[in-house]
Amino acid sequence: MCPARRYVGIFAVIALLLTESICGAEAQAPGGAAAPPAVGVIEAVNRPITETNQFLGRIEAVNRVAIVARVTAFLDKRLYVEGAEVKNGDPLYLLERGPFEADLAAKRATVAQLQATLENAKLTAERARTLLGGPAGQQSTYDAAIANQRSLEAQVQAAQAQVQLSQINLNYTDIRSPIKGKIGRTAVTEGNVVSPSSGNLTTIVSQDPMYVTFPVSVREALDLRARYANNGGFKAVVIRVRLPDGRLYEQKGQLDFVNNTISQSTDTIQLRGVIPNPTLYNSSTSTSTVRELTDNEFVTVLLEGVVPVEVLAIPRSAVLTDQQGDYVFTVGPDNKAEQRRIQLGQSTPTIASVIEGIKLGDKVIVE
């Protein structure tokens, strides 16, 4: 086909389509006027909504203990598995006991020797007291015997205190867990000398429940107080946690503490809640217990009201936004679209609550 004829054919098709489009538009309404477009509308109604405030926070262990050596000795054995959960009283480290056992035996021998001397002093004092009624008795001799007896009694008490101290030091060679929790890695291996100045041998953090702490600006804190103080206080809200991977944690927490001072650098106040951290499962290949929350984990905190509130609500998809703010289109009495500037309140991803701009029963365009 000749290129000129091909172009003529294309132009003919375009002209035919334009003619059909114009004719169709003229047929839409009498006199050639276009009919108003069909739109989807919904009435603004009151709906219950859960008020939610979102903050950034961290998970913290309720109890945290740094294990340190109380005496200077060689580290003989480590008795736990690193990363495992331990119970209160479980053995952790065993230090060299020999020198402390010998010291304790020597202190006990000193006590026995002093007690024997004390018994003899008591007998001497008793004889001196008996002789006081006869011509050979002297008051000074009796007084000296009583003084010697009391001195020996004091020496026995001091020696018994040394025995008690040696027993305490011997007990310190058996280091046990003071709390229930998850234990970390050891900082000192077997065969090294440890002492109170060696620093932390390891650290134990409790697992269930956990704290979740988060800073709140003073302005938001005042708003929360006004909203919930007369509705139950701490019991009027629950804490939900969104994990770093975006999942919403199943367990709910309870707010239990508001700090007594405001940070000058950030103008925020610290809030804290308690949230359960139960076992997910026990690993069959190790002694490690798996839980969802970990100490010092960075999370998103959702502070939710317990009782839903009634708000004037419309679908979130109906809300449009420009440089001046949020607005919607409504259908007026004469079926004309009107732009309404609105002010949004507490909203969800699907429902928007409206504080100003529309009233109950207004028809809002959603499609």
Structure description:
This protein is 28% helix and 34% strand. It folds into four domains: 41-48 and 310-365, conserved putative lor/sdh protein from methanococcus maripaludis s2 fold; 53-62 and 206-308, Elongation Factor Tu (Ef-tu), domain 3 (Beta Barrel), CATH 2.40.30; 63-93 and 176-205, RNA polymerase II/Efflux pump adaptor protein, barrel-sandwich hybrid domain (OB fold (Dihydrolipoamide Acetyltransferase, E2P)); 97-172, Helix Hairpins, CATH 1.10.287. The chain is elongated, with a radius of gyration of 42 Å. The longest helix is centred in the first third of the chain and has 34 residues, at 98-131. Mean pLDDT is 82; it is low at 1-29. The protein has helices spanning 3-26, 98-131, 139-171, 218-228, and strands at residues 41-43, 45-49, 52-61, 64-67, 73-78, 85-86, 91-95, 174-176, 181-183, 193-194, 202-205, 210-217, 237-242, 254-262, 268-275, 279-282, 289-291, 298-305, 309-315, 320-322, 325-331, 337-341, 343-344, 351-356, 363-365. It has a six-stranded antiparallel β-sheet with strand order 13-18-3-12-15-14, with helices on one face. A four-stranded antiparallel β-sheet has the order 2-19-24-23, with no helix packed on it. The chain contains four helices and 25 strands. The protein has 367 residues and is an alpha+beta fold.
Throw out a few tags for this protein:
Elongation Factor Tu (Ef-tu), domain 3; alpha+beta; OB fold (Dihydrolipoamide Acetyltransferase, E2P); 4 domains; 367 residues; conserved putative lor/sdh protein from methanococcus maripaludis s2 fold; six-stranded antiparallel beta sheet; four-stranded antiparallel beta sheet
